[in-house]
Design a protein that fits this description.
Layout lengths: L1 H12 L8 H12 L12 H13 L4 H16 L11 H19 L7 H12 L8 H12 L4 H18 L12 H13 L5 H19 L23 H9 L5 H11 L3 H5 L6 E2 L4 E4 L8 E4 L5 H21 L10 H4 L19 E2 L6 E2 L5 H15 L7 H14 L4 H8 L4 H4 L1 H7 L36 H9 L1 H12 L1 H35 L1
Antiparallel strand pairs: 1-2, 2-3, 4-5
Helix pairs in contact: 2-4, 3-4, 4-5, 6-7, 7-8, 8-10, 9-10, 12-17, 17-20, 21-22, 22-23
Amino acid sequence: MYFFCIGDYVTTLSKVANKHDWPLIWYQKLSQFYKIPRETPWNFTQQHVIDFLIAQRRANKKTSTRIQIVEALMQFQKRRPQLQNQADLSEIKTKLQKLLRQEQQEQAAKPLKGDKQHAYKHTADVKGRIDPSEPDVIQQFRIKMRSGKHQYSTEKAYVRQVQLFMRERQLKCLADFQSVTTADVESHLSDLAVDGNVAPTTQNQAYYALKLLFELVLDRDFGKIDAIRSTKAVHIPSVMSRSEVAQVISHIRPPYQLIAKLLYGCGMRISECLRLRVKDIDFEMKRIEVHASKGEKSRFVPLPDSVSQSLQRAIRSRRVLHDKDLEEGTASVELPFALDKKYPNAHHEFKWQFLFASHKLSRNPRTGKLQRHHIHRDTFMANLAAAVSELGFNKRITAHTFRHSFATHLLKAGTDIRNIQELLGHNDISTTMIYLHVLNVETEKVVSPLDTLEINTQNKTDHNPAKPLIASLPQTNDDEKISDIYPSSCSANSAIAQDPLQHLQGAQNRTSYFGLALAIGTALVLLSTMLGRFT
């Protein structure tokens, strides 16, 4: 009876959700975030709210908005006095209010745009090194992007697009952008599609790079862009058969063979697999945590039983390398976001180390610190290409082909497409639906009409070498009937069949006689015309 009352209570209040009942709205969003059915009475904890607020922060929700979320959830708790041991959210609200005051103080103390050198020096200490030889607009753009927690690969791609725009428009510094308008951006994007003949993804990358530049650096509205867009072709993903997957994996040498097994067994992207840390492998729950995925999302993927022992050996081997780094005083790894400030010693801990570590130390391109990064993706691609070449496969096989094969084989085995969407980390189900198109065209079940024909490939040739390669046609009863109706035609055809070369020679002779007669007739006409003029 208690559960029934709570369910009716939520259902009744859902009718007024559209009237800005924010306590109920944010409770429903919190429930959807954890996939809790709407009618189920759920006593959320403090950690549930913290994780939800972190997700809202990554979605660029302001601190003031996050405070309103906490206040709305506190009001919703008051509507359910029946539930015992409800989470105390006042501490979270206090911390957020303190954070808001700090942000307001930093905003007030922020230097003006003219005081660039002071701003760069202060931000470089926090966000990493900035090359002073780059144009000031590029330096500002890098700083703003790092403040927004963008991946380094995204930063490089966006900076490259902005540099291309500056080179095409002959822009040298931030002051030159004062004359840049939306029409310039439209013209640039159209030139990429028409003259550059770039792919749609490249044009979209340029669009979002310039849009981010306008918003973060220029503090201007990007406006509506009406440029000529590149035509996006629909590509069917390349998929390997199970036999091909087994052959390719068996020909890849360790430790890259383990990476290939994880790509196919878990459906991960190559970047996600290479960024796996020791702490992400959960042998007890038989799952792997994938963090910093596309769109800064996290998810769980299943841990195949067949790779458990290989992963344990890899972790033991990684422990040996880490102990060596500790002895030499070089044990360090890049940490996501600002964890190195919250946990100053975490970069030394073994659990934070990359599982597939590089054999040498390298400097972080942002901070300049000497750290042990994961192996480069090109190293795996080189080993994969060598294995494919050794097998003699002509099919285009990349690291992403394992992911395509993972999804296709699961669909073929009857796995629900919603589960595959969760495993792949797709936002939209339509992205996962592309693998259904691969299955709908089951070419192995389609019999080509050519295979149903019985074609005699043996040529019936005469033993005489002077005879042509055209086989003589036997006389059939049907031919005899036709010869009764068209005797001259059939007799001619019979003559052709008996000696084709003689027929061709006769045809050439007739052509020569006709040409000679035509020439004589033309000459006579001309002669008579001339005689007529004299007379």
